[in-house]
């Protein structure tokens, strides 16, 4: 029994950090770790980015919280900028990705309710998905390990195999309200839906009067080399949930929707106490200032190519350790032939921080401002970690 006062819900690594600088984290005794975990794709601009620090400290000296009983100018501004940069007409701000997904699911159900179809409340989702930890979002994700022990699964979610569009079509009934997916699954193993699949799903939704919901909590805000991953396909959703990168490390999320999809979200039907608070809005606007600068997203794509080419070389060198390199932009995955937990530990021993995912994958989530030199350092450390595992017959057999 641990003596900790904390819930035992995290198997934390025996590491703590005192400060961060860009792509680096520093322990109290001065050890430096290259951070390609990014707080699980959260620290989009790295640690202590001067623009974010300035925005937060300036706002902190003025006003922290007033609630949504009053106008919040920073919220109006960030909402207008997100609308201008996306398919959306309306934005609802939240504190997390799970809350953004809850808002998205409620928006879809409410849409059908106000259009005279209250029986349409079910959402089709895909295996491998991760949509959050609330009772609704674990039901949407459908993974047994997250559902176990929390009572009956929340009703209203029908799951089909990953990228099986025929199965999705067969799953549509008179009760179906929406189809929900991550354009690139993060937790599910850095698996992207092909553009053609997204086009087919858009057509299915149009044919059957369903709403298409994209979860871009992990793959959004520049992570793939466009502001949002859906842009690569030419397909726009009706509703989209975002979080993580938009706050650059400050907790915030948002649900974006078209006017039509959001028509049922009228005063009193949904709310939030902290969502859209002045601190979050100041940081969110600063993140957009940087990410929307001319050439910034092109640089993400260029650095992605540099990294993927380097990873391919390491994979060729250690085929007994690495099976495949996958992903897009700076959301990359190493599919391992050894247990991914061992790979993660081996990389941590090399002072490189990464994140395990499903399908025996290690996620690489560097800040979007990572330098070419830092990418080279990371590749050297991945090579060293793979070499250590390759030299260990037991690990390689695992």
- Could you give the count of β-strands? 17
The CATH first-level class of the largest domain comes to Alpha Beta
Largest sheet: 7 strands, mixed
Which radius of gyration do the C-alpha atoms yield? 21 Å
Structural class: alpha/beta
Taken as a percent bin, the fraction of beta residues is 15-25%
Quaternary form: single chain
CATH architecture of the largest domain: 3-Layer(aba) Sandwich
Q: Average pLDDT value?
A: 96
CATH fold-level assignment of the largest domain: Aspartate Aminotransferase, domain 2
Q: What spatial form do the alpha-carbon principal axes imply?
A: globular
| pLDDT < 50 stretches | 394-398
N-to-C SSE series?
EEEHHHEHEHHEHEEEHEEEHHEEHEEEHH
Q: Give the proportion of residues in helices.
A: 25-40%
Domain unit count: 2
User: How widely separated are the two ends?
Assistant: 30 Å
Instruction: Name the strands of the widest sheet in spatial order.
Output: 4-12-11-10-7-5-6
Count of helical segments? 13
So, the CATH homologous superfamily of the largest domain?
Answer: Type I PLP-dependent aspartate aminotransferase-like (Major domain)
């Amino acid at each position: 029994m641990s003596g900790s006062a904390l819930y035992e819900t995290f198997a934390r690594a025996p590491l703590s950090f005192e400060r961060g600088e860009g792509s680096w984290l520093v322990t109290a005794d001065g050890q430096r770790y290259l951070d390609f975990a990014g707080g699980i794709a959260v620290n989009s601009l790295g640690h202590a980015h001067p623009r974010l620090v300035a925005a937060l400290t300036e706002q902190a000296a003025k006003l922290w919280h007033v609630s949504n009983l009053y106008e919040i100018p920073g919220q109006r501004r960030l909402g207008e900028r997100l609308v201008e940069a996306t398919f959306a007409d309306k934005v609802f701000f939240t504190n997390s990705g799970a809350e953004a997904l809850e808002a998205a699911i409620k928006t879809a159900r409410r849409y059908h309710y106000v259009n005279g179809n209250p029986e349409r409340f079910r959402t089709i989702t895909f295996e491998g998905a991760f949509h959050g930890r609330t009772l609704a979002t674990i039901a949407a994700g459908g993974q047994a390990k997250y559902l176990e022990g929390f009572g009956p699964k929340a009703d209203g979610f029908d799951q089909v195999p990953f990228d099986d569009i025929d199965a999705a079509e067969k799953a549509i009934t008179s009760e179906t309200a929406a189809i929900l997916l991550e354009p690139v699954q993060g937790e599910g193993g850095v698996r992207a839906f092909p553009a053609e699949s997204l086009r087919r799903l858009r057509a299915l939704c149009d044919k059957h009067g369903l709403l298409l919901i994209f979860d871009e909590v992990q793959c959004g805000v520049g992570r793939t080399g466009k502001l949002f991953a859906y842009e690569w396909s030419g397909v726009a959703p009706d509703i989209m949930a975002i979080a993580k990168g938009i706050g650059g490390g400050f907790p915030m999320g948002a649900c974006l929707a078209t006017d039509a999809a959001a028509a049922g979200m009228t005063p009193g039907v949904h709310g939030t106490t902290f969502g859209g608070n002045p601190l979050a809005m100041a940081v969110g606007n600063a993140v957009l200032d940087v990410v929307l600068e001319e050439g910034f997203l092109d640089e993400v794509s260029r650095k992605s190519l540099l990294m993927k080419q380097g990873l391919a070389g390491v994979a060729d060198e250690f085929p007994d350790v690495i099976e495949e390199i996958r992903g897009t932009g700076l959301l990359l995955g190493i599919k391992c032939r050894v247990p991914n937990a061992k790979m993660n530990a081996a990389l941590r021993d090399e002072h490189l921080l990464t994140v395990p995912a499903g399908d025996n994958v290690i996620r690489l989530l560097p800040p979007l401002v990572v330098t070419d030199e830092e990418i080279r350092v990371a590749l050297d450390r991945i090579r060293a970690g793979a070499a250590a595992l390759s030299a260990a017959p037991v690990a390689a057999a695992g």
